[in-house]
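User: Hey, quick favor. My workstation is busy. Could you predict this chain's structure for me?
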Amino acid sequence: MRRWSLSSVSDGCGASSHCASIDGALVAASAIGNQLASYAAGAGHVLLVVGSQKIVPDLDAALRRVRDVVFPYENAQVQAKMGVDTVLEKVLIIYGEWQAGRTTVVLVREPVGI
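Assistant: No problem, here it is.
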């Protein structure tokens, strides 16, 4: 018989979104998705910092940015550190929050991150 246990939930998560679209979508991508769980529902509070270069017109542009800018950069980082390629497997799109005040987005007027 398999027994399941509840995992703990963190009080907060501070990170960055890979893109924010003017039409209201936040996009984050990952190979294995471990950080995406906190963004989606795992953390009690989420703080996302978005640099000016990450603001795009719409969801299509955000997904292109993930594929054409973020993934090549992350792949180069993984190659340099581990000598292998990474993969783009999971993409989280956030349009809003069920719980008011759970997620805070800080827009920075200058480029921050990739």
